[in-house]
Design goal:
Largest sheet: none
Distance between the termini: 55 Å
Low-confidence stretches: 1-5
Helix content: over 70%
Length: 289
Amino acid sequence: MSVEAQALTPGEYIRHHLQHLQNHKQSSIVDFSVVNIDSVVVSSILGALMCWVLYLAARKAHAGVPGRFQAAVEILVEMVDNQAKAVIHNAQSRKLVGPMALTVFIWIFLMNFMDMVPVDLLPQIWHAAGPAMGFPDYLRVVPTADLSTTLGLSTSVLLMCLLYNIKIKGLGGWTHELVCAPFGTSKNPVWAVLLGVINFAMQMIEFVAKTVSHGMRLFGNMFAGELVFMLIALLGGFAAMSLSGGLFFVGHIIAGTVWTLFHILVITLQAFIFMMLTLIYLGQAHDAH
């Protein structure tokens, strides 16, 4: 925990770390002109890193005995491909969906992994450089702990679902499904219209609910993990300031180690769940009701 952080109260310390580096101050609860620059920059850098690593793996791949790097990538690719085959039975669709699912899994894992970086490390580097360049002294480095990032990802999945609904079923077939599922229709014109309205409303609720829950699940888990790391960092701050600092420091080390080891499972599981839900939703777009 930094010297500057020790000068803050615990509440002020956490509030400071929960502030994003933004292009301008938010004027209302919903302000689409505000951009969380830190989330955009960090996620873009990690995306470029992912593409570079996968490019190296593809360039060095050979038919002989694979090295450790190639073997690790092949295991990952095979795992994602098997999951895609189990959910999406259209081989033509899997040519796009399979690589996309692999990209989603690795990218989200890398963004989640930023939660493993010490809480004050990158913010302290930014504290020395950012204000000197005229930027605010705020920085959050876990893009998936930002709701705009996770909802952006889930909205992208929604758009792909809509495109595949139209591609697989045709515009007419999908429109018919929107007004005839899940409750069917009726030969009576009045009942047919009533059921059509109800079916359409239920379909829209389903799309919205899946999209919101898809993004909120990832955000909630990563936000909670980030808060726990901040609380553990506060233990280190109290250790430096208190007479019984030795006990606080031991607690800081133990809690940090245990939570870090557990969080490795969390960040991997959350990336896998997001990928699997993406495959499931796209698989549902291929199925007729």
